[in-house]
What does this fold into?
Amino acid sequence: MNLTGRADCPARPAFFTVFNPRQRVEQELMITRTTLLYLSKRHNLKDYFSRFDAFNRITRRFIAGEEVDEAIFAIRELNALGAAASFDHLGESISSEAEAEAEVREYLRALGRIESSGIRANVSVKLTQLGLDIDEELCLRNARRIVEEAARRQNFVRVDMEDSTKTEGTLRVFRRLREQYENVGVAIQAYLYRSERDIDDLLAIGAKIRLCKGAYAEPASVAFPQKKDVDANYAKLMRRLLLSGIYHGIATHDEEIIAEAKDFATHAGVARDAFEFQMLYGIRRDLQVNLIEEGYRMRTYVPYGAYWYPYFMRRLAERPANIWFVLKNLLRGK
It folds into this structure.
């Protein structure tokens, strides 16, 4: 006879756990995210997926196009809504000096097109595009050319972050740029344990920071594995930035965090034009418009270029809503 009083019902094993729907959903989302981040590194799958018209149509929601003029067209529409923008020429992990030189030329061209077209935009660049994996001094020289051109045109360059193996090198190059130029900022990822210390160091040199959650697969040894912990750290770092007196970018689509930022800024006496919200092209346009109408500054990151596949897969991994959007359209054949 077991504890239920029924001889026909076996006792529960010691490892039995009560079914928890919320935990199961979180586990499934974690598996899905891990899978998508893995697929983002399988560049050979781009050609396979690109054979499907439905997949190509979906990517255009998140990618402005492969050419700079397509990005300019998208930015004009954003400017008309009241949002500024940032060019993000897609590419990373460059392995040759020739490829890095081509990226520099593309960014110089983009800066020229921003000025000639009159759009409100700056540029965002990953340092592995400029040769960080080849030679740090080469990367610094290439980055300096872009920042100098931006300064000449009274524009701004954001140095983006990549996976955690690039964080230290990216910050070293950024600090050397910041010693010479004020028109350069950097991104910090809230899911890394080290980010609080990095922010303290960066605020000490007056750096303009773009705070994001982070979009790469990272081990628990360097990053918070649970979303709730990432969110809590993001909110803590966000408050520190808002009180710094420096113009920063609060980059998130999380409505709870946005509401917290608005509430904190209001009670702390931080003006709505003393910082900006930042979001990605194709994600939560409705929320972007609402913030603009409330008097907040908004900047939308507009990615373009042929190297769109890894970026696209990481965007799907970031938010479950993006995954369901894609699946729904693929099933409908739209």
The chain has 13 helices and eight strands. The radius of gyration is 22 Å. The domain at 67-305 is CATH 3.20.20.220 (TIM Barrel). The chain has two domains: 29-63+308-334, 67-305.
